[in-house]
From TrEMBL, chain A:
Pfam families: Spore_permease (PF03845)
Main location: membrane
Superkingdom of this protein's organism: Bacteria
Keywords noted in UniProt: Germination, Membrane, Transmembrane, Transmembrane helix, Transport
Membrane topology: Multi-pass membrane protein
Cited NCBIfam families: 2A0309
GO biological process: spore germination
Name this protein carries in UniProt: Spore germination protein KB
Entry keyword Transmembrane: yes
Compartments, record wording: Membrane
Transmembrane residue ranges: 7-28, 40-58, 85-106, 118-138, 145-166, 186-203, 215-235, 264-285, 297-315, 335-352
PANTHER family: SPORE GERMINATION PROTEIN A2 (PTHR34975:SF2)
Species name: Paenibacillus phyllosphaerae
InterPro entries: Spore_GerAB
From TrEMBL, chain B:
Cell location: Membrane
Family designation: Belongs to the GerABKC lipoprotein family.
Name of this protein: Spore germination protein KC
Keywords noted in UniProt: Germination, Lipoprotein, Membrane, Palmitate, Signal
Organism classification: Bacteria, Bacillati, Bacillota, Bacilli, Bacillales
Domain Spore germination GerAC-like C-terminal: 214-378
Domain Spore germination protein N-terminal per the UniProt entry, residue ranges: 25-197
Membrane spanning stretches: none
Predominant location category: membrane
GO BP annotations listed: spore germination
GO cellular component, one term: membrane
Membrane topology: Lipid-anchor
Amino acid sequence: MQEKGQISALQMGIMMFPFMLAINFLVYPTIAAQYAGNDFWLVGFFHFLFGSVIIYILTKLHKLYPHQTLSEYSEKIIGKFPAKLLMFLYLFYFLHSLGASIRQYAEFVTGTFLFRTPILLILISIVLLAAITVRCGVEVIARSATILVPLFVIPLTMLILLLPDLHIKHVMPILSHGIIPVVKATQWWIGNFIVIAYLLPYLSNPESGRKASMFTLTAVVVTGTYINLLCLMLLGPDTSVKIYPVHVLFRYVSFANFFENMEALLLVMWVVGCFIRVAVFYYVASVSLAQWLNLENYRSFVFPLGLLIVVFSLWDFPDVSAMGVFFRTAYPFEQLLTGLVIPLFLLLIALLRRKKPEQVSVNETNH
Amino acid sequence: MRRIIKLLPLLWLLASSVLLTSCWDRTELNDLALITMLAIDRTEEGGIRTSAQIIIPQNQRSGAEGGGGEGKKTIMRSEQGMNISDALSRLQRKVPRKLFWGQCKVFLIGEDLAKTGLKEHFDFLVRHPQPRERAYIFISKGPASDALELIPPIERNSSEALRELAQLQISLGVTLEETSIMLKRDSDAFALPYVTILKPSKSEDPLKTIPYIKGTAMFKNGRMIGALSEKETQGVMWVLNEIEDYTVTFNPEGKGAVSLKPVKADVKLKPLIKGDKWSLTVSIRAEGDIEENNTQLDPVDPKIQIVLEQAFKDSVRKRIEQCINQQQHRWNADIFDFAGVFHRKYPKQWEKHKGDWDSLFPKIAVSVQVEAHILRPGLVNVPGGMPQEEVIH
């Protein structure tokens, strides 16, 4: 165990909500609309399907190996050396995702609000903040998430004020090109749910882990569909050309000539959401690195890892258009591999080995 | 020692107050030039001339309390360039403060530029992070910069006057975002409000007037192809379902005029494809109260009410039929987005025919069905200025 802290399943659920949505809600309507035209709001259905499968696999693995993280039980399942190799892949994936997340965070802030502030300053400040939180342990991340989640949810409810400007006609015709474009538009970012493999071992009530995760998944899908529908009904065919469609939603609100120019609210939820996302990802990356090196405590790694994250964020993409290409082409496969294929593969092997106990003992003597 | 530890959070707060001022993006109000309206024109050489109406902050007090003389409230500066952005960067050289867009809620585009192509120059307005998507866009008759020099007698500046007019919902008001969507929808034509400068009353200074929305500028393939008059615009607004708070005047049986207000209308477009024949039913439900009755008819008499409603219906139907007919045959410009209506109902047929919409649009058989109701007679029942004997029951 990397730490003594414990969180409740509910806290994990609350923490996962902004973690899943934070970056995705702002950027994905565009990519989804590029693939599926006016049907992109239906992607929620596939998100739910894909998410439930991931949650089932990860909670099942957790039941088989309680109090262990993905790094630990993968060693038990496929052996020490292959597991180290596999976990290096995951470590790389966590760092890469973190780099991409903070870069997206900073690109939005510099591109639309603080035009003249150097991007490095924005990158470093969020990583520093997250690093301090991560050093304090999972309990602190969970509690700060619980306090901050309202700031993430309230701005979204303000978008209801757009109601007079929405046109239902943009939704029609439904599925005129069949279901395939919707599948392409799904983008599989729900694969980020893999981080619960590192949070489930710290639950005080692990039996509720699945219920809490499913609850979060439902909330994420409902909120995602709500945002997608708002984008579609306000912007219609224009959704696919806006870099940040949700930003336009917030700017467009004008209610009774009084509630106007609400993009500052978006910045609030953006900073809060990205902070939680980065903190959770950062925590998972630190723990997995410590376990990869067989160390007792992850804390000494946090600050050096922060340096690496900032560097990764600059290495990941030279500019915004390269970022777009990555998220349209490589990202879905990355998510499918790390979120679904590898855990599924681990679960199948684990189940096979459970059924043949004699083979397990043979393998164990090998190590 | 403990006291020092207690003071630490305070020190932290002090330190963060220095750090949180966001040094790079700090802007002071007195470093900004607030733009209220931007006019974009084409120069004779084919470049762009942008003119900005900028608020003079010193002169914003209302006349009564301001002691020393009445100064102009806004100033106009203009400059040419290869495109909008180029012209604006040159314009900045003539303005000692940094141009600020947060209050710019009106974009006025000159007719000349609109005729050579709005499509190319629209990009700046949606790409630049500062202009607001909810800003209104207008096409001006003649050079757009003329409207910026006006000194409106009632409103603070001519931008405000245009914005208020667009919000009244009597004439067309189109935002940047709506224009951006219209440029991408199935039909390649759309309509924007067309602005002219109101002729000032005789006693007034020629500049003391406002720009006002006179008609509609029609666009096809992102270029302006013509303008519709005020009366024709009303027909367009009926079909676009923009009618709200609107007065309809008609002539029942040729015996004088009757006016209804406010007319509320609900317009539904129902497409139908039968074999090769494409047809469209415009069904309208309209209702209003009597505001003026110059005839001898008694509007509360149920029999006469039927006559009045029939006349109301005919008047609305005729107006809409004329309007659609003109778009189909004279302009061949689908500014109502019938294309989208067909696309939504018949996606497969639409995919097949979307290439030849130009030849298909004039052939669509349009029928107009109006259901009209007169709800209330107003404060008097029989014609107000007429002795009882003259009233026809």
